[in-house]
Amino acid sequence: xxxxxxxxxxxxxxxxxxxxxxxxxxxxxxxxxxxxxxxxxxxxxxxxxxxxxxxxxxxxxxxxxxxxxxxxxxxxxxxxxxxxxxxxxxxxxxxxxxxxxxxxxxxxxxxxxxxxxxxxxxxxxxxxxxxxxxxxxxxxxxxxxxxxxxxxxxxxxxxxxxxxxxxxxxxxxxxxxxxxxxxxxxxxxxxxxxxxxxxxxxxxxxxxxxxxxxxxxxxxxxxxxxxxxxxxxxxxxxxxxxxxxxxxxxxxxxxxxxxxxxxxxxxxxxxxxxxxxxxxxxxxxxxxxxxxxxxxxxxxxxxxxxxxxxxxxxxxxxxxxxxxxxxxxxxxxxxxxxxxxxxxxxxxxxxxxxxxxxxxxxxxxxxxxxxxxxxxxxxxxxxxxxxxxxxxx
Length: 393
Ligand SMILES: Cc1ncc(COP(=O)(O)O)c(C=O)c1O
Fold this sequence. Notes:
Elements: H1 9-19, E1 23-26, H2 28-39, E2 47-52, H3 59-68, E3 71-74, H4 77-85, E4 93-95, H5 104-110, E5 113-116, H6 119-129, E6 136-142, E7 164-165, H7 169-179, E8 182-187, H8 196-209, E9 218-220, H9 238-256, E10 261-264, H10 268-271, E11 275-286, E12 293-297, H11 306-310, E13 316-319, E14 325-331, E15 354-357, E16 364-368, E17 389-392
Parallel strand pairs: 1-17, 2-3, 2-10, 3-4, 4-5, 5-6, 6-7, 6-8, 8-9, 9-10, 12-14
Antiparallel strand pairs: 1-11, 11-12, 11-16, 13-16, 14-15
Helix pairs in contact: 2-3, 6-7, 8-9
């Protein structure tokens, strides 16, 4: 059921006792492994991999990626500052934010690179830096197509507010001319858990959009690489995608004479399967012979929100000697019926049972695939529960 379980029962039990639960455990080895897979994509004119740190801003995780030569995609000024605190140089950071940071001037003057995600942002940047030594800028374009594992993670196409709509590229160029800005990077990111075929299609569209920008030397294709957390999910084939990228960038160079440096900025791919959440069975309740049996955990949507938000699937295992199994709904400890860890895929409203060994109160539970968008994106503070601790092993 787990596609990646890096932690054996003995270690999990030891850690749960030592640090108490709920506890996020991240694997240094798995983080390095995924970073190396990305970094080894053989493109002709250079590759920068940026970690979309919104997926997991844990300073120890950032330090590990830093040690591998993975740079940063920051989604707010605060993230940029946290990356710097974790040891990144400002120039290692590309800032792509929905809100202009109040200290944008300071960040850019220190070296942070800026990616304008709207015409307003581009003008704002022009007001601050047009005609100065900081006049190199990047633009995020909505290429007209999007795809995510859920509608909530689709950030491309006409229903998405992210990026400059592709038909407004001439306006972006006008703004750049008016303010004496140089657009050196074209950026697209169309969603998380993107269909791999759509991802490849959009990579080609993005490449063709470069033709509209005379100074672009870097193509950033965002993240969105699909990973499998449970057996039935399909993972993006990075070798196939890498080959396609290498071929397309070479062809583009042959046709246009332009040698583009490639940037990719995955969050999920780099971190999701490098994390497990250890919790304990807090209670077991049922709703009679025709109802359900619920395993209530000492964690929930205040630590892990993805099932509640998206109907996302996370593998769940119980550490026990028990051989007999039953059908259980796994729920969190918050006063909210939506605090549910077992839903049908993509349907957070639904309730699903999974087969588990017959549990006892206080048994340890291992929840997989939680290295990305879990600790960073939970309903922290709900019911005033403290957030789960995080360690790297
Ligand atoms: C601009 C940008 N780049 C990269 C990512 C990473 O996406 P993923 O975690 O799906 O790889 C995101 C996530 O939403 C993003 O907004």
